[in-house]
Structure formats: C-alpha cells, structure tokens
Amino acid sequence: MEKEENMLSIGDVSRFLNVPTHTIRYWEKEFKEFLSPARTVGHQRRYTDDDVRRIRDIMRLLKHDGYSIAGAKKILELKHKQGLQESPHQPVQNGIPEDMAYKIVEMIRTQLNVNPMEEKAAVA
C-alpha cells in the first residue's frame, strides 16, 4: 500500500476526475470487488493511484462507452483475470495523457495547499 501522504481524499479525486463525490461512493458500493480505498483512523477514504485508475476505467465504461453496471463489471472481471493493469484504450483524462496524471495530482495538492504532514497530524 502507498504511504498515506501519496494518497488522495475523495474530494481530491472528485475534483481531479470531475466526478461528484456521491457518484464515487456509489461506484464503491457497486464495484466493491474492484474499488476499496483505504481508510484513515477517522474512516475517511484515501485513494491510491491504482484506485484513481480504476475509477477512471469505471467512468469510461459507464459514461463514455455506454455499458451498464453489470456490463462494466464483466469487463473489469475479464481485465482482472487477464492480469491487465491498464485500460486497453490510450489512457487519457480530459485530454491529458496518463503519464502526466501524477504531476497533475501534485499540482492539485500544491494549489490546495495540502501538506502531507498536516494530514498525518489530523489523522493521528
């Protein structure tokens, strides 16, 4: 598991992917086999880069490719069985190549003045 300082809150993920937090929570319930974020001591969700990729895959399957939840689950199951970590499509989010995603997340943290040490203190 990643260090908590490298993890994002649900609000950060929501802003990054432009998906409402209630939608992310709903997808967690519907896709619990594939999406299970870590929790802080205070039960706040913390998402890894892999979690963000899975949410992006779910979003693409449901919103862009037009699959039902059942259909999206089947595709994710096949991906899991085949051991594929990445989407079969060129990974792009809002026109941004995935290799830039980490840098963007860091920029968001900087703009939000998110200090990992302050987050740790709040959790402790």
TrEMBL record:
Query: PROSITE patterns attached here?
Result: HTH_MERR_2 (PS50937)
Gene3D superfamilies named in the record = 1.10.1660.10
Superkingdom, taxonomy of origin: Bacteria
Aminoacyl-tRNA synthetase as a keyword of this entry, yes or no, is no
- Keywords, in A-Z order: DNA-binding, Repressor, Transcription, Transcription regulation
Supply the InterPro entries for this chain. Answer: DNA-bd_dom_put_sf, MerR-type_HTH_dom, MerR_fam
GO MF annotation terms: DNA binding; DNA-binding transcription factor activity
Q: What is this protein called?
A: HTH merR-type domain-containing protein
